[in-house]
Amino acid sequence: MVLKPRNQASNLDGRHRNENGEIDRKHGNTLIGTLRLTYGENFAADRRANMKLGTLLQESGATSLSDYLRSTQ
């Protein structure tokens, strides 16, 4: 039997929990190209792959990645 560390869970989609037990958010320095691996090639299709998430959020007026995804649907 393999035991996972206490702060990991299998349903976090590759994310992890921080010291407070909260699920980590995507950082503002995450590249759009990296997010396309998760959200598909059409994610922010009109933006460069080397643009940072923080810049995308600032330009779009979104407060978070979730907020941006909701606004584009």
Short description:
This protein has 73 residues and is mainly alpha-helical. It has helices spanning 32-39, 53-60, 65-71.
Task: Note the topology.
Elements: H1 32-39, H2 53-60, H3 65-71
Keywords for this entry:
73 residues
Polypeptide structure, described:
The chain has 73 residues and is mostly helical. It has a domain at 32-71. The chain is 32% helix and 0% strand. It has helices at 32-39, 53-60, 65-71. It is globular and about 35 Å long. The protein starts with 31 loop residues before the first helix and ends with a helix. 5% of the residues are buried.
Q: How many strand units?
A: 0
Helix content: 25-40%
Which parts are unreliable, with pLDDT below 50 for 5 consecutive residues or more?
none
Structural class, judged by helices and strands? mainly alpha
Average pLDDT confidence is: 79
Percent of residues in beta strands?
under 5%
Shape: globular
SSE pattern, N- to C-terminal? HHH
The gyration radius over C-alpha positions equals 14 Å
Biggest sheet descriptor: none
Q: Calculate the terminal CA-CA distance, rounded to whole Å.
A: 42 Å
